[in-house]
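Hey team,

Filing this mostly as a record. A colleague (T.K.) asked me to run one chain through the structure pipeline before their review meeting, and I want the input and output archived in the tracker in case anyone asks later how it was produced. No errors, nothing strange. Just documentation.

Input sequence:
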Amino acid sequence: MKAAVIARSISNQALHGQTPILEFLLPSFTISPSRIRYASITTSSASPNTESSPSSLESSSPNKRQKPLSKTQREFLDRALRVNQAGELAATLIYTHQTPPITRAHPHLRSLMRHMYSQEAGHFSTFNEMLAKHRIRPTAMYPVWSAAASVLGWGTGLMGREAAMACTEAVETEIGGHYNGQVRVLLGWAKEMEDKGEEVGEEVRELVSTLKRIRDEELEHLDGAVGEGAREARPYELLNRVIRSGCKGAIWISERA
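Output structure:
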């Protein structure tokens, strides 16, 4: 019954508004190069170490009262952490299935693939712990995303180095932006608390620090992929568009299911 309600809700929102699910299911295959947005660690909308962080995030004051998170803030965190965990699961599976064919054909990429997989596995473990700590359920789409990520990793791995790197660039462009958005929301909460003379709780401090670190590592993967020929993939524009649309759709669905 709950699954049916969720399905109807997603269907209604997709039919009556412009939502990522439509772009995910029906991506535009007529693409002009000018529509492709290139991202890098230096051009991201919130590049590492450039955010203006409230001073209250750096130190605590025993004289200030701590206000618990509101219901709306809790709901935001539930959605955010559920999506993050699903995304990191997908990333580990993509690299798991890309690595064998890529490293056989290009042995020099073995260390890079191992490095990226190791960091993604660490991210996945971090969000698993956060879900357990905050008693947040994983997405109901877990099996679907597992299968989709495995197929994407296997398929782009067989297509070759450039396609595998283009996959990484596309995924990390969306995920980096997704984490940027979460960091900005949390910094906004911290600034609001500071302005009201309230103490920023350890929970928010930990989340900001963790999300910034993981975001920076994801953008590092993006730059590494571009450096290894991501934009030499053929057809680059099509791969970029389809994979990014898939990521947007998966994020949109996982927030709701």
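Quick notes for T.K.: The two ends are 13 Å apart (CA to CA). The beta strands are 65-66, 198-199.
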